[in-house]
Amino acid sequence: MANRRIGMISGDGIGPEISAEVRRILSAAGFDPEWVELEAGQPALDRGLPAMPEETIQAIRELGIALKGPTATPIGKGHVSANVALRKALDLFANVRPSITIPNLKGHFEDTKIDLIIVRENTEDLYAGIEFQPHKDIAQAIKVITRPGCKRIFKYAFEMVKAQGRKRITAVHKANIMKLTDGMFLEEFYLMANEYPDIIADDIIVDNCCMQLVTRPEQFDVLVTENLYGDIVSDLCAGLVGGLGLAPGANIGEHYAVFEAVHGSAPDIAGKGIANPTALLLSAVLLLRHIGEHEKATSISNAVLKVLGDGKIMTGDLGGTATTREYGDAVIAALAS
Ligand code: NAI
């Protein structure tokens, strides 16, 4: 185990607190790799480096894999998002975000069995970062959708559906309005669907998708979508199953993989020791599965399910009063039970 090396970006805001807790829980579960600390976000900016320093990107190229805490991005000004920079540099084209009901966890959908995965294209769309201002009163952004980009995200998504024994995949789009960009996305989706006749493939317009998700979320299995819709819809789905404190994610490319929670740096609660480490912990569970450590992955996710299902020791975002550390202690105790 000790010879496995994994990059660790603690990030900023609540990042350092939840990263430390997650490492403590992983260690209690018997997973003790060599964590290679990598800088990004505010600590890098404080040293006059870009939010995602080249040396961090290069280190992940060498390590192949990393766990990442959140990093803040100023709104409307300032540095380029560390996340966007990382995903582009490593070509992490698939962002996989599961939303699964936690049994007995109280919430608006506690009686609904939600078990869906969002596969979000992670490198194109309006996130291409091509914005310009031809006139002081006009600002423009370019939405980029490419055929190769569509092909590889659909290939990944259909293969994932097959590997996980899932049944249905739904493309989420707005091709009724964006006839060329989303039109190409949809066309390529059905071309790929032809190669997987055993998988039910259909599509839905993004606004209707949001309405359906908040009324009958149990109907969906796998949603595959573009970058911006995927960003928004996955936060919505996180809300359905308990909130951002529980939602994990994986950024997967052909050569590298970076695992991170859906949530951001939560500056409103940073430094208070009350953040929920579950989303990052479940991202680490995805990492464990990615490297074939299924036993440890299952034992950690079972411990999380037990603690959250018991409902006695929970962080503030879930209506509890536990600190990050107290919650971590409960998960560690549940590992042993
Ligand atoms: P956010 O996800 O950081 O927070 C939204 C709300 O959820 C806040 O009330 C926060 O306290 C709560 N929350 C989030 N994670 C939580 C956790 N683990 N435990 C308990 N409560 C939690 O979103 P916001 O406020 O829009 O963004 C803050 C910063 O994070 C921004 O600079 C944004 O750009 C960045 N961000 C970074 C991401 C990343 O590094 N992958 C992803 C999303 C946002």
Give a structural overview:
The protein has helices at residues 15-28, 42-46, 54-63, 82-89, 147-163, 181-193, 206-215, 227-240, 278-290, 294-310, 324-336, and strands at residues 5-9, 34-38, 65-68, 94-100, 115-121, 131-135, 138-141, 168-173, 200-205, 222-225, 250-252, 257-260. It is of the alpha/beta class and 337 residues long. It has 2 domains: 1-92 and 253-337, Isopropylmalate Dehydrogenase; 99-245, Isopropylmalate Dehydrogenase, CATH 3.40.718.10. Strands 2-1-3-12-11-4-5-10-8-9 form a 10-stranded mixed beta sheet, sandwiched between helices. The protein has a two-stranded antiparallel sheet with strand order 6-7. Helix 1 packs across helix 9 (278-290), helix 1 packs parallel to helix 11 (324-336) and helix 5 crosses helix 6. The chain is globular and about 55 Å long. The protein starts with a strand and ends with a helix. The model has no long low-confidence stretch (mean pLDDT 95). The protein binds 1,4-dihydronicotinamide adenine dinucleotide. 1,4-dihydronicotinamide adenine dinucleotide (NAI) binds at residues 14, 70-73, 83, 244-245, 260, 263-269, 275-276, 279, 317.
Number of H/I helices: 11
| Bound ligands, named by name, code or SMILES | 1,4-dihydronicotinamide adenine dinucleotide
Bulk shape? globular
Number of strands: 12
Q: Approximately how much beta-strand content do the residues carry?
A: 15-25%
Q: Considering DSSP H and I runs of 4 or more, what fraction of the residues is helical?
A: 25-40%
Cα radius of gyration in angstroms: 20 Å
The CATH fourth-level homologous superfamily of the largest domain: Isopropylmalate Dehydrogenase
What's the arrangement of strands in the largest beta sheet?
A: 2-1-3-12-11-4-5-10-8-9
Predict the CATH topology of the largest domain.
Answer: Isopropylmalate Dehydrogenase
Give a quick account of the main beta sheet: strands, pairing sense, barrel closure.
10 strands, mixed
Q: Tell me the distance between the termini.
A: 23 Å
The chain-level mean pLDDT equals 95
pLDDT < 50 stretches: none
Structural class: alpha/beta
In total, the number of domains comes to 2
So, CATH architecture of the largest domain?
Answer: 3-Layer(aba) Sandwich
Helices and strands, in N-to-C order? EHEHHEHEEEEHEHEHEHEEHHH
CATH C-level class of the largest domain is Alpha Beta
